[in-house]
Every structure is written in structure tokens, then in C-alpha cells.
Specification:
Layout: H1 2-14, H2 18-50, H3 57-65, H4 67-85, H5 87-104, H6 110-138, H7 144-193, E1 207-211, H8 233-263, H9 268-286, H10 289-293, H11 295-315, H12 319-334, H13 336-345, H14 353-380, H15 387-407, E2 413-417
Antiparallel strand pairs: 1-2
Helix pairs in contact: 2-3, 2-6, 2-7, 2-8, 3-6, 3-8, 3-14, 4-5, 4-6, 4-14, 5-6, 5-7, 6-7, 6-14, 7-9, 7-13, 8-9, 8-11, 8-13, 8-14, 8-15, 9-12, 11-12, 11-13, 11-15, 14-15
Length: 418
């Protein structure tokens, strides 16, 4: 009877309580509002650079990918600060950076736009890292993958609806209306986040997390100390897989509108909505898949589907084919992040989750930061117009990322109870 009572008490500790549910809902809403604003800018910015700014495809790639440079540094730094000073501080500071970045889009030059993207990179990185670490704190151990996946709906939901809202704002008020929206969204998110309670899931006082001896397979030595001591070693292999997958997202975000315009198809914003809509629906319906079938297998299948979608976009000659390929890519990308994040947090004690997830999510920015300008370079080779080649190359890299993610594993942190 005592053993059964102890088991029941342990299960109750794993069940979400009232403050945790309130915190989750607040985090979801604040993150959604922030990424709604970021998504509104995505269809407008490439046109703005090539139109009113009169710049070329390489400039488009540099402007779109510039945020990744500051986010690359900002995510690990934000994670470390979140471990020491609290998740809420970093989350709210990130929202403030995003507000400032929206206002800076009014600077009338390509260097001004690059500077604005640098600032949004810090904000995006801090909101993302502090938010996902906070969510992991709140989630039961056996449902981390699902919690990360559901939280990710706020990001992709914001990007999806933001693209539609941005097109509407542009139709009503031009680029200025889009830039205003880019500041209003995170400002509203800050108002929500300011009243979110900073709580963590309760554990028994006698619970002692024990880190099993790491047993690593893959592409790095188990004695490696990460990248220069800045990115924790637990983050490196899952991070490389994420970065390779995200090169495709960088290509999509920067060039889907221009690819379909070049083909004479048009409706690039609709294709982006098909991509992110499929991602949303897949994640909403299959959010527990990494927990049920395993994170490694989820990464492998998802990466292959993403690669096929990118190659389909490269070959698309009509809008229905382009939409189907974009949706397939979205299905593929939907579970890559939660599956790889699950692999990352399984290898660290709770006190180092912020640093580990900050290092892991930095590879998101490496992928986007490389994908956009490298695709711009591919497009500009020869006589220009090599958009299909850029998408096909990104598809091949997605296949490589799937293989690396599948080959990477770590023995998890096992909580024991006295």
C-alpha cells in the first residue's frame, strides 16, 4: 500500500497544475503575437529589397538571413542568462528587441534593413530560447516532445497567419503598414508576458536527477566539449541536423515568392501558407509521435519528406504542384524541431536545459543564415534565375540532416526517487 501511495503521489507531481496551465497559455499567446509580426514581414521584405530598394538576389538573401548572425550568438547567451536570472526576464527582453526591430524597418536603405534584421535576430532568439526552456520546465518528463511540439504551434501559427495578415496590410497601406504591424505584435505580446507567472512543474523534494554515463553514436567524440565551449556538446549533433534542415526553410522564406514569380505562377504567399499550414496541422495531430515512436526515427522520416518537398518546389510548373510540394515540405519540417529538441534535453540535467536548448536552437539560425544568402548566390550564378537549383540543393541538404539526426543519440537523464 505504501508503494502504491508513493506511485500515486509521483504521478500527481507529473500532472500539470493550475499555475502551470496559466503560464503555458500565456507563453503560447505572447509567442504567437511576436511571430505573427515576424511572419507579416516575410512576404513583403524580398519584394521591398528588389523593388523600392533596387537591389539584387544576393542582397535579398543577405537581408533575409542577417538576423541569424545575431540570433546565433543571442540564443546561447539568452539560454545561459535564463538559467541564472529566470526565463521570464529573457523572454520579455526578447519581445522588446522585436518591437525595436519593427520600428527600424523604416530606415530607407539596405544597410538599415540589415541592421533591423540584426536586432530582430536577438529578439527572436531570446523569445524562442527562453520560451521553449520554460515550456520544458513545465512539462512532465514523458511528454516533453508533445509539449515542445504544441508550443511550436504558436511560432508556426504566427508565421502562417502573419504572412496572410502582412499581405492584407500591404494591400491596405503599403510597406509602412507592414512595418507598423511588425512592432505592434511583439508589443502586445509583451503586455501578455508581463502578467505570466514564472512557475515550474513541482517535483518531490527527495527526487535526485542522475545523469547516466553518456553513450554517444554519431559524428563527434563523446569527450568533445561542444563548439568552443559556447555551444554545449549535447547540442551539437542534434543542432547540426536542425541546421541542415533549416537551410531549406531559409530558402523557402527568402525565395518562394521570387521562384513562383519567375515561373510565372505567382501566389508565393499562398505557397508559404500551404507550407506552414501543413506544418501546423501535422504538429497538432501528431505532436506525440516523437514520444511514441522515438525521436530518431521521427527525424529520419521528417527530413526525407522535407527534402522531397523542396525538390518538388524546384520542379513545380503549376500552382497546384507548388502548393502540394510546399505542403509536403511543411509536413516534413513539422516534427523535426521537437524530435531533435527531445534528443537534446534527454542528455542534460534540468539546471543546464537553458544553455543546452540555447545552443541547440542556435543551429536554427545557422541554417537559415546560410540558406538564404547561399541560395541567393546560387540564384545569381551565370545569367541569374537559378531558383530551382537553389531549392534542389536545399533538398539534398535536408536528406543529409535526416541521416545525421537519425545517427545521433544520447543516454537520457534518469530521475530516481528515494
Amino acid at each position: 500500500m505504501q508503494a502504491r501511495a508513493a506511485s500515486i503521489e509521483r504521478l500527481r507531481a507529473l500532472r500539470p497544475h493550475g499555475p502551470a496551465r496559466t503560464a503555458f497559455a500565456g507563453l503560447f499567446a505572447a509567442t504567437f503575437l511576436c511571430f505573427l509580426a515576424i511572419g507579416a514581414v516575410l512576404p513583403a521584405l524580398p519584394r521591398y529589397v528588389k523593388g523600392p530598394m533596387g537591389a539584387g538576389d544576393i542582397a535579398v538573401g543577405v537581408v533575409m538571413g542577417a538576423f541569424a548572425l545575431t540570433a546565433l550568438v543571442g540564443r546561447p547567451l539568452g539560454g545561459r542568462i535564463a538559467d541564472r536570472r529566470g526565463r521570464k526576464l529573457v523572454f520579455c527582453a526578447g519581445l522588446l528587441f522585436c518591437v525595436a526591430a519593427g520600428a527600424l524597418l523604416f530606415l530607407p536603405s539596405v544597410p538599415g534593413l540589415i541592421f533591423a534584421r540584426f536586432i530582430v535576430g536577438i529578439g527572436d532568439g531570446w523569445v524562442f530560447t527562453a520560451g521553449v526552456t520554460w515550456i520544458v520546465d513545465l512539462a512532465p518528463d514523458h511528454r516533453r516532445g508533445q509539449a515542445i511540439g504544441i508550443y511550436g504551434l504558436s511560432i508556426w501559427g504566427g508565421l502562417t497567419l502573419g504572412a496572410i495578415l502582412g499581405e492584407g496590410a500591404y494591400a491596405l497601406g503599403g510597406y509602412s503598414a507592414v512595418w507598423i504591424l511588425a512592432s505592434v505584435g511583439p508589443l502586445l505580446g509583451l503586455a501578455v508576458a508581463s502578467v505570466v507567472p514564472e512557475v515550474r512543474r513541482e517535483r518531490r523534494e527527495d527526487a535526485q536527477p542522475v545523469l547516466a554515463a553518456p553513450q554517444v553514436t554519431g559524428f563527434a567524440s563523446p569527450r568533445a566539449r561542444g563548439l568552443g565551449g559556447w555551444i554545449p556538446r549535447e547540442s551539437v549533433r542534434p543542432g547540426i541536423a536542425l541546421g541542415l534542415a533549416n537551410i531549406g526553410y531559409g530558402t523557402m522564406g527568402a525565395f518562394i515568392v521570387l521562384l513562383l514569380d519567375w515561373r510565372g505562377i505567382g501566389h508565393g504567399a499562398i505557397a508559404f501558407v500551404a507550407f506552414s499550414g501543413a506544418l501546423l496541422l501535422t504538429r497538432a495531430g501528431l505532436s506525440r509521435l516523437p514520444d511514441q515512436v522515438g525521436a530518431r526515427m521521427t527525424v529520419l522520416v521528417s527530413g526525407v519528406l522535407e527534402g522531397l518537398g523542396l525538390i518538388g518546389l524546384a520542379a513545380a510548373q503549376s500552382l497546384p504542384v507548388a502548393l502540394a510540394a510546399a505542403a509536403l515540405m511543411g509536413v516534413g519540417m513539422s516534427l523535426i524541431f521537437p524530435a531533435l529538441a527531445t534528443l537534446t534535453v534527454e542528455g542534460v540535467v534540468p539546471e543546464r536545459r537553458g544553455a543546452a536548448l540555447g545552443g541547440f536552437t542556435a543551429f536554427f539560425d545557422i541554417g537559415f543564415g546560410l540558406g538564404a544568402p547561399l541560395s541567393g548566390l546560387i540564384v545569381s550564378l551565370g545569367d541569374g534565375g537559378n531558383y530551382p537549383a537553389a531549392f534542389a540543393a536545399s533538398g539534398v541538404l535536408a536528406f543529409l540532416g535526416a541521416l545525421i539526426g537519425w545517427r545521433s543519440t544520447r543516454q537520457p537523464v534518469v530521475p530516481t526517487y528515494a
